[in-house]
Specification:
Layout (H helix, E strand, L loop, with lengths): L13 H7 L1 H9 L1 E5 L5 H11 L3 E5 L24 H12 L4 E5 L18 E4 L4 H12 L6 E5 L11 E5 L7 H13 L8 E5 L17 H19 L2
Parallel strand pairs: 1-2, 1-4, 2-3, 4-5, 5-7
Antiparallel strand pairs: 6-7
Length: 241
């Protein structure tokens, strides 16, 4: 741990320090966050955290960048197509802050791989997973770690266009979101429930229909990015307390 006297705010974070203060920046320098899924939501969350001042970040995703990612995922460009997502994301984050400690895990979180991630070592766990069984398992495990570890979760951002409908609430109070509804039904059927309440970012907007058949549901960057930035803001608020 650095002392307040020995820690010097990097020049790239002076504007953050002007808002948050020296003590908060010291906490951001020392604390640890893990993000599961660095797609349309998680990639923007990761960048926001590092730009603000977080220096210990683990990013987890098993995919490679494909051309359809380019409309909404931060690291997805014409030059990164085919690259491992977490490696492309790590390179971008290191370009922002070369002194950051970014661990890039090209892995998929599953109930079988869960123990490999050592969730108890993190101050914040951010869930941006799409897969229902994997998401449910992460929520069950991470919610048990409160208050030492905060869990934050993204609900469905696909097929939405209205940024003013994006909100934050406790999981059991999320309304009009198919992913949250599916998770709640799954927990009820299994009689396994999150051990503690946790906040979610979601949209109250009714999902639009897919107008073109293709690979997955349509989604737009101005929605997914707001989801990710909101998750970042919630994490920062917790980390600097």
């Amino acid at each position: 741990m650095h002392s307040m006297e020995s820690y010097r705010i990097p020049a790239i974070h002076t504007r953050s320090c002007s808002v948050l203060g020296n003590e908060a920046m010291l906490k951001l320098n020392e604390r640890r966050v893990i993000i599961f899924g660095v797609g349309g939501v998680g990639s923007w969350c990761a960048e926001s955290l590092v730009r603000t001042g977080l220096t210990h970040l683990t990013i987890v995703d098993s995919d490679t960048v494909c051309v359809t990612n380019c409309n909404r995922q931060l690291m997805a460009t014409s030059s990164t197509i085919g690259q491992v997502k977490v490696e492309a994301m790590r390179q971008r984050l290191m370009d922002i802050n070369p002194d950051a400690h970014i661990m890039a895990l090209s892995m998929r979180y599953t109930p079988e791989s869960a123990d490999e991630f050592h969730l108890e070592e993190y101050d914040v766990v951010i869930d941006c997973i799409d897969s229902l069984p994997d998401k449910a398992d992460l929520i069950l495990r991470a919610s048990r770690l409160y208050p030492d570890t905060l869990l934050l979760s993204s609900m469905g951002a696909a097929l939405k266009t209205d940024p003013t409908k994006i909100q934050v609430t406790e999981f059991w109070k999320v309304e009009g979101d198919g992913l949250a509804r599916a998770l709640r039904n799954r927990f009820k059927r299994s009689k396994q429930f999150p051990a503690h309440k946790f906040q979610c970012v979601y949209s109250k907007e009714t999902p639009l229909p897919n107008l073109v058949e293709g690979d997955g549901n349509g989604s737009l960057v101005h929605v997914t990015a707001i989801f990710g930035m909101t998750l970042s803001g919630l994490a920062i608020k917790w980390l600097v307390v």
